[in-house]
Amino acid sequence: MILGFGDHPCFFETNVTMKHFISIRIVLLISLFQAVACKSPRSDGPEMEDPFPQGTSQIELAYAKGFELYEKDDITFIVVKDPWQGAEEVEFIYVLYPKEMPQPYFDFEAQYIPVPIESMACMSSTHVGFMHALEKTSLIQAVSGTRYLHHPELKERIAIGDLREIGGEGGLNWEVMIEVDPDLLFSYGVGSEVSAISAKIQELGMNDFMVADYLETHPLGKAEWIKALAPFVQEEAKAKQLFDSIQVSYEAVRENNFQFQHKPRVLTGLPWKEVWYLPGMDSYLAHFIADAGGNYVWSHWTKREPQALSLETVYLKAADADIWINSGFAQSLEEILSIDSRLGDFKSFREGKVFNNNKRQNEAGGNDYWETGILEPHRILLELTAILHPSDSLLMDFKYYQRLDSLKL
Fold this sequence. Notes:
With 409 residues, this protein is an alpha/beta fold. The protein is built from 13 helices and 21 strands. The protein folds into two domains: 4-246, Rossmann fold (3-Layer(aba) Sandwich), CATH 3.40.50; 260-403, Nitrogenase molybdenum iron protein domain (Rossmann fold, 3-Layer(aba) Sandwich), CATH 3.40.50.1980. The strands form six sheets. It has a five-stranded mixed beta sheet, with no helix packed on it. A hairpin with a 2-residue loop joins strand 11 (167-168) and strand 12 (171-172).
């Protein structure tokens, strides 16, 4: 089961007719996407390496980098790029066409999916968050990690057996998948093994769509994936309206935070089995910190991927950090201290300035930060701003964050 992935891993998937689905590596697409960067309809120029039909237009995205959208008439083309960690020049093309029309065929390898879909299975709680925002949770028939969900309607359906559990990334319950027979599986994987899931889906004559929002380097990039999921339920206009509103709210908070001259140093995470994973500066959490008016302690590491560090290394670099956020699964300062007594020497610990993003964690450990929070980066940014600059904040109540105090029973 996979719930999400960000500053720490939060691990958590017919009419039976064979659909064409083949994962592809097309180096020529690099030149294609450079050629269409103008976002306008494609020309007839002979120099273009163009797999899409003439007259296809690219839909401009603001922050997301992991997918591209194209449209021509009633057909939508989605290109998902490098959808797992370490993937290079791996791309999947999806052709979405109205189910009332005959299936089109183009001179490139792709998965053809009739829309709107009428049922789905989800491998991540972020997919549930997207469907909730689009008011399409009634279409969800199966989920990976049902006990971790927060959505009230889905929890009721789980209780009466109307929503099925399909297992996790390393072992989907294929018997349940066949019984549920969803029109589409929103899949997810942190490694290339997710390709095996896609191959099995293809073998069973089902469709899947690979969602890689967790690889985005900016909070708004994650949220913008709603535009990739919306065409499957024909809610593109709603998705655009939602994202535009989120973007305006987020950028307004960020611009207001330019006023802060003092930028407190911020530490993140928690050691796991004596290893402390700190994401790089080009990560979504580092962007959150910078946009909230903070100074990330590991800003010298310019990549997105986290570094695996010893506690001693982090101690030397960040023991004097002013604020400590996203401290793993800890619910109290005592829990942090139980991991290693040296953590109590950190300045932020001693001064009681440790804040975790698990205020909305249920009894099974499912964290709504990854479910509902995927489309509330503006709210999360407000909370981080209040944590880093409390004297300048009017925000009185936190939804996702909590200050860690004494032991909670």
